[in-house]
Design brief:
The complex is a heterodimer of chains A (147) and B (169). Chain A is α+β, with helices and mostly antiparallel strands and 147 residues long. Chain A is 64% helix and 12% strand. Chain A is built from seven helices and four strands, in the order H-H-H-H-H-E-E-H-H-E-E. In chain A, strand 3 and strand 4 form a beta hairpin. In chain A, helix 4 packs across helix 5. Chain B is α+β, with helices and mostly antiparallel strands and 169 residues long. Chain B folds into two domains: 43 residues, no CATH class; 115 residues, Immunoglobulin-like. In chain B, the strands form two sheets. Chain B has a six-stranded mixed sheet with strand order 3-11-10-5-8-7, with no helix packed on it. A five-stranded antiparallel sheet of chain B has the order 1-2-4-9-6.
């Protein structure tokens, strides 16, 4: 029972903390973020397994984590509200070449971030060449160019 | 033609601005909670820090116990028992409480002359040297379960102190 509780509580804690940290952390994955991710997994590992070195314990932990993930996936498709709560929704940041400043500020994304995405994905140079810039659920900014 | 910023758009994606605002508010509260957790953790609310280190002295001042108010499961905690004035050839320290059932004693220094138990009470007897004025007993313990543990330490059945330890999971 303890193994299952450990896995479930770590899953929930990580979900809440990453939710609070916001989508911006996913947006800019620098090499430091990669190391941070490794440290986080290292810190989690101890709490997940404790002093249990058995194959059964590790299997049970992995299965628990996957089952929770499946459960959340099922619940999300049944309750759209829950999906909104866990994944958030899409957010339009630029509309017809105009930056929606309040939204961008609250989402923690600057005009430069949007222009960076526009250059990388569409080869655009200016804000007025963008029809829509949308902050997606996965933390990326998708750009629709003016036609 | 431009809608106000805080209104939901339907094209090219369906937005839900009402929920988005709630999310931002939750995120703000979350920042405050995370920041305060880090500060409280640094101060020792989750073991090892000035909020956690405590000492308590018995009414007659003969027995002083230094302990940690907050501990973590499966990690080490220390407990120091100090006896100020010694009388007679022996002194006896007894530690009682549910703690004894749920804590593992990792180290006990110095070794007692005799150790015995009664219920969930650990009774340690030490010999006293002629020149010896006071004594200290150091214990290293490791909690095995989480919860709240009231502990009583008694010296020679006369002076006693009571304190509570919290163990986080």
């Amino acid at each position: 029972m303890e193994t299952v509780l450990r896995a479930a509580s770590m899953y929930l804690i990580l979900m809440v903390v990453l939710k609070i940290a916001g989508r911006r952390t996913l947006l800019e994955m620098t090499s430091f973020d990669l190391i941070l991710l490794l440290i986080i997994s290292e810190a989690t590992q101890q709490a997940l397994l404790g002093d249990d070195f058995s194959v059964t314990g590790a299997s049970l932990t992995i299965i628990t984590l996957i089952v929770i993930d499946i459960l959340f996936g099922m619940m999300k498709s049944h309750f759209p509200r829950l999906e909104l709560l866990i994944d958030g929704g899409s957010l339009i940041l630029v509309e017809n070449g105009k930056l929606l400043a309040m939204r961008a500020r609250k989402a923690g994304i600057s005009e430069d971030d949007i222009l960076l995405s526009a250059r990388c994905t569409q080869g655009l140079e200016r804000l007025d060449q963008i029809k829509f810039a949308i902050l997606e659920k996965n933390g990326k900014i998708s750009i629709v160019p003016q036609s | 033609m431009h809608k106000p910023e805080d209104e939901s758009r339907r094209y090219p994606v369906q937005e839900n601005m009402r929920w988005q605002r709630i999310e931002w508010r939750i995120q703000y509260v979350g920042y405050v909670v995370l920041f305060s957790l880090v500060i409280l953790g640094a101060c020792g609310l989750f073991s090892k820090g000035f909020l956690s280190e405590r000492q308590i002295t018995s009414a007659d001042g003969n027995l002083r116990v230094e302990y940690e108010r907050f501990g973590l499961r499966d990690s080490n905690m220390h407990l120091t028992l100090r006896v100020a004035k010694l009388r007679g050839p022996h002194f006896t320290l007894s530690i009682s409480g549910e703690e004894m059932d749920h804590f593992q004693i990792q180290s006990l220094q110095p070794q007692p002359l005799s150790a015995r138990s009664e219920d969930n009470q650990l009774i340690l007897t030490y010999a006293v040297n002629r020149q010896q004025a006071g004594a200290t007993v150091w214990l290293g313990v490791q909690p095995k379960t989480y919860g709240r543990y009231p502990v009583t330490v008694t010296l020679n059945d006369s002076s006693d102190v009571q304190f509570t330890q919290w163990v986080y999971p």
